[in-house]
Amino acid sequence: MSETNSISGNKGLQIEEKLIFELGNPGCIGVDLPEPGPVDLDRMGGVRKREPFGLPDLSEPQVVRHYTRLSQKNYGIDTGFYPLGSCTMKHNPRLSEKVARLPGLADLHPFQPQKTVQGALEVIDGLAHWLKELTGMPAVAMSPAAGAHGEWCGLMAIRSAHEDKGEGHRRRVLVPESAHGTNPASAAMCGYTVDPIPAKDNGRVDLDALKAKLGPDVACLMLTNPNTCGLFESEIIEIAKAIHGAGAYFYCDGANFNAIVGRVKVADLGIDCMHINLHKTFSTPHGGGGPGAGPTVLSDALADYAPVPYVVHGKNGLELVEGPREGAKPFGRVKGYHGQFGVFVRALAYILSMGSDGLRQASSDAVLNANYLQARLSDVLSASFEGPCMHEALFDDRFLKDSGVTTLDFAKALIDEGYHPMTMYFPLVVHGALLMEPTETESKDTLDQFIAVVRGLAAKAKAGAAEEFKSAPRNTPRRRLDETLAARTPVLRWKAGSNQ
Ligand SMILES: *Cc1c(COP(=O)(O)O)cnc(C)c1O
Q1: Is the CB of 224 under 6 A from ligand 1?
Q2: Aminotransferase class V domain: from which residue to which, for each copy (predicted)?
């Protein structure tokens, strides 16, 4: 429960919110309905309500206030700075939102005849064109619905390519220890075994260790670049050569593409496939469980195996290929319909409104902002690796040594200061990680305010304020939750009398 001295339990104008079921008052009603006329009881084939549904009875203002107050308890990119590393929480231009809401785009139905949706197919085809252009890759599968889904799609293409060559026995996938958890999970879902590769002291893949793991049963390497330590894999060309030399493919996790857009064409790095998180790099509000999109670009070696559907330029305009086609060997389909269309619209609007100079500037500014954070915080926090970073700055918990304060306590104290915490305890390759990604959309003022708070908290921690940190957050509607219990045993249904 929240701890407060007020009579009501409320804190300032923050209302202590009950569940809507607890607010309900039997007999209370929000609308006046006319008395029903004689009811034809047989219209439901004899199925009749036997007991109350258990829905709460409330007035209209009660309902409006309840949901408005709940919405105000959310913290989002529209309310404040959100330095969550790896997730790229950045401002979504309202222009992209406006375009996505145009009725001609928002009100389409996936079953409409193709000749009535030529404009929509042009959006898909136009976005595919720019994704191929920005990566230098010859093909792209547009339908995956998230980054992890794109990983799975790319791995399925790799599996099909190996099977086609009679090399279906390649079942091992190499994954660096710093990888995002979705990488090994996607490989496992494809039926592969996962073999971890260690990092060197400089935070990059250990090329010798990688070479030692290569063999005739390796299907591919999954590498993130820039990696999850915020570092460019400087030996990536050597890595690609080694992988290809062993007859395996090179998968790149492109979630951090926002650090290199307009600067590096991934085709030049020897990559065979890479998913792009449209919702991270190319705008789209995410993080609340909303839709994302993970189009996966493919090299010539994998292009034929791309899943359906895809758009081609046919005799009568644009056509959506939904089945087998001369010369192609699609491994199947990964999603109903045609992909996350609303996200495509936002991404295309973003790309076209930024232009090539704008995209290049966005990735440069993202890297500049992260290096600014790293430079201004390195004397009080402990930066994990020497030298400049890419779009995110990684610190570990050495600066908290002997203070009695943990990374978790530090993050909770940030909440009291009005900031969403950075990513904690990821990547796993450093102890007690604090991963900060400011993105290009934050101003120097915002970063300076954040820096002042982090510096202040670091000073407090070192001055022996462990008790204060342990009891944070104090200013939130709830204090520390049992996150493990909540994840393992979530209570998702309200039951009458359970008081939960
Ligand atoms: C976000 C992320 C993913 C997964 O993407 P989703 O869209 O959340 O499925 C994979 N790898 C990295 C490095 C990421 O940051």
Answers
A1: yes
A2: 171-287
Q: Does 253 contact ligand 1 (Cβ within 6 A)?
A: yes
pLDDT tens digit sequence for 300-333: 999 999 999 999 999 989 999 998 888 889 999 9
Q: Residue 309, Cβ neighbours under 10 Å: how many? A: 21
Ordered by where they begin, the domains of the chain are 95-351 (3.40.640.10)
Which atom of ligand 1 is nearest the CA belonging to 292?
7
Assess whether the C-beta atom of 180 lies below 6 angstroms from ligand 1: yes
What's this model's pTM, rounded to 2 decimal places?
0.92
CA-wise closest residue to 232 among 358, 391, 373, 362? 391
Could you tell me if the CB of 284 is within 6 A of ligand 1? Answer: no
Centre of ligand 1 to C-alpha 24, Å, is 40
* Dihedral sign, Cα of residue 422, residue 425, residue 426, residue 427: positive
Q: Establish whether the linkage from the previous residue to 216 is cis, with ω within 30° of 0.
A: no
Ligand 1: which residue has its CA nearest to atom 2? 255
Q: 457 with 417: CB under 8 angstroms?
A: yes
